[in-house]
User: Fold this.
Amino acid sequence: MKSPTPVIQIENLSYAYGRAEAVHDLSLTVEPGRCYGIFGRNGAGKTTTIKCLLNLLRPQSGQVRVFGLDPAKHEVEVKRLLSYVPDQVAFYPWMSVRETLDYLASFRAHWNRQTEQELLERFQLDPAQRTGNLSKGQRTQVALVAAVCPETDLLVLDEPTSGLDPIVRREFIAAVIGAYQQGVPGKRTILVSTHLISEFEGLIDEFTLIDHGRTVLTLDADQARERYQKIRARFAQSPPEIDLRTALRVRRDGRELELIANGSGPELMERLREHNPESLTTESLTLEEIFVATLKS
Amino acid sequence: MNAHRMYKEARPLFWPWCVVVLAGALSLAHPPDWTVDLIVVGFLLGFLLLGALPFGNEFQHQTLSLLLAQPIGRMEIWSEKLSVMVAAVLSAALVLLLAWRVSAVQLDPHDAAFFGAWIIATVSSATFWTLLARSTLGGLALNISVNALLIEMPWLVLYHEKLVSVPLSPSTITVSAITFVLMCYAGVMLWLGRRTLARFQATGGMAGDDLLMAGPSVMPRALAGWFRCQPTGAVLNLFRKEFRLLRPVWLISLLAALGWACLTLLGLLHPRGLTRNFGTTMVSAGVITTLIAILAGSLSLGEERTSGTHLWQLTLPVSARRQWLIKLCTALFAGLVGAGLVPLFFAGRLLGSSNMLADVHVGRDLLVGAVLLTFAAFWCACAVKGTVPAVLWALPVMIALYFAVELGKWAGPALTNLFFSRFDPFANVKFAAAVSHFRSNAFFKLTDAASTNMTDSLQSALVLTTLILVPTLLYAVFQSYRLFRAQLQDRALSVVRSLLPLAMTAFLCSFCSLAFYTFVGRAAQDPRWTALFDTIEAIQKIQSGGAKLDAAHPLQLTVEDLARASTLSKSTRRLLGDSHIALALDESPHHGPFGCGQNPQPHGLSALGYSWYSAIIPLADGSRFVVAFDPVTHYVISAGICGGQLPPFPGRVPG
Assistant:
């Protein structure tokens, strides 16, 4: 059976701003219907990668394909298939929320007015208000409404929750992203770039962790949780000297020993059991913990 | 005062200050007369910018809230900014005065007093207008408009002999009174600026959230509804958005039109009075139209880049090329209307049809100038981030391109002449004749402007300008599209990097045009033509006796025969070699323009009963020179190298 065309395919992408290398030899593939995360610290190269996808930057080497199309050659076709929320949302200050949405709707073949109305009410946005008078969070909300209403096949979100208050943030993730993806299951794809990973914990299917423009880790979220484990052992006395070189991180705290295992969990558990700990527990790491552990190691 | 803070205030003023100083010092280079007005306009605009920038920069970078949150008094901030601005303005004015003194520019003391007071008034009021408009350009526009309406209008009125009873040339008392009024205005505005800063509230959060861009709508509701974006019609919405982005340009144009309408009213009542104030009127009109043209080109993209909406626009499903084209067309239209058609309309009314501004060529130049300046500003907006840097770069870019063209104009002939001093490309007469044929082209009538009519001269100038301008413009258009969609680095070096290929194109165009022009000119001025003149002169002397010639049996002359009749130079002897020159009275219809046998059309003059000599001069290189000339008037009727093409042979044989 022929596998479907990946929604996003990036191969050996490199981009530098002058001498400062933003992305180096980055590769990733996003399959249809997935929620894909690009995680990294500030300045890791997340926004540059997304800008290459949108043809806002031309890759200096490597290639980028969106729905099998080259964004540089099929600029409009690609942009018709996706909607985008930038990291810094800006609108024309003289336009009202209503006019801004009308303006954006004029570029789209389809615009779901019902979703627009629901989201405006949910976010308590006044359509008559000028965008110049909106707060940063409110502007992000308008941008999200504008990204969801065209119901495109791909939603690209660059730091979408920055500037949102905790209540809206939670509501946004549950309502907006969830509803968007569940609308046509298996077809709508989300690419989200963020360093606030905990907020996307339950939504991410697969992720790539990048640092200094290079891929550090690419994993399926479930596989990652299986692979990365936190092991806690408590001994009657101070912990004995054990060979724990396969652990990603080791922390000793009195009689307690805390390890982070990267695929070597069962082996480490076995070794710890040999020293008869009082208690021995294991749990999967959250994506944020994986992010921290991987980058710190 | 804190040294670090003073440095921080001085740094953003440095480059604008350099531009102003450069504009002031340009008079030392003895530029062409037509650039003097441009320099004065640039200089005045520079002063206005220096006044608006200290607070305008804070708005542009959205740092005013941060600055006001620091544990220092607002008045301390105000005095620090004002000190740096005053130092910059005074030093720039000093450079201008020194440059004028060195280059012996005569300045009327009354004008000097007025301009000095005007500078003090505009600079003092800049802080207030900038804080009110909440942007550099808004402040600049308000400052210019208010100055034009409230200060210059009374000046023009006071100068007017019939409205008030003052002498036509203002007396010292009048000038003192005006200067006093301006100084009072400066004092009041300074106080207002200080007060506005003391009471300033940091409302709004977006760049571009200023009075002119996002202020209350001044449009009638019906019209506003048409300009409001609709849910359908993407292209029309893009145009609507562009028109709205250019709102400051429309507002300034409207204010300027109002001012000019008032002047027109005065001019219609008392035409002589305004003619006396022509200079002042032109300078103020020049400042406003230049500002309108620059803003029309730079505002739309500059504001989008500052606010961050440009990148967002590029992610919409409409091609970047279309967005760029719509932006460019709207900008050019705004520049053409605001800085071209409106001033031209009022200039015609204001100064009368007999005035130079009503002249069709000057009108055309004004329109072309407005479009070019708008495009230059658009290019700058594509090459830099933000409106203010684009405005600041517009004039230096134009000056750089001007110098590139001038360098090409100098280097083209110079290198061609150097080439001729080393090599002789016209050893073959046929080649020389073929090259010299180009002189009949309109382009080459430029040097003959004195001997030909004015239309030819203008046409030639137009061709030359087109040859230089069109390729440069085409490249600039292509480059502006490339820069439009590029991610820019906020550095002056990146602008210089973009400017260099453009300047190189301008240089190469002017260099190639002028080098070719010189090359062709040298072909026509080749010493071989002189040798042929010698030959004809000798033939004329031989025939002065009126010897009967028979067309069927031409008179055969040798070089020695010619030498006996007239002095032949060595080069003439060398060229003719052992030739036998056939001379006949040519009464029959002339076969072909050069008598070479081809193109057997009857010569028009034969029908009129003219008779002329026809000389066939075989040259040493095998070609034949055929010349037909009138024995009485000595006018050469036709001449040419057989096998070659018609050379631009002089109309009268020397001697």
